[in-house]
Design goal:
Length: 84
């Protein structure tokens, strides 16, 4: 997505991180599964800038499950797309 900002969970798999890196878009990393930290970063971003929230439904390295419902609410509130 040209001109977007990527918001990435700190525990995303290396392949997802590599894809984000290759997008050459700015990225912000939020603390693993920390919705308050993600919301803080989203709130600081320009409302007119496209946003992508990247996370894993189930984190392959440690088996944690993402708070998908909360991520969806934040995506809607801040007009962001989700990638998982």
């Amino acid at each position: 997505l040209p001109g977007c900002v990527d918001f990435s969970d700190a525990h995303n798999h290396a392949s997802m991180i590599e894809g984000i890196r290759h997008s050459k878009c700015p990225k912000l990393i939020w603390r693993h599964n920390d919705m308050a930290h993600l919301e803080e970063l989203l709130a600081q971003s320009n409302p007119d800038t496209p946003k992508v929230i990247a996370f894993e439904s189930v984190y392959s390295m440690d088996g944690d499950i993402a708070p998908i419902l909360e991520l969806g609410h934040l995506a809607k509130e801040y007009n962001a797309l989700t990638l998982h």
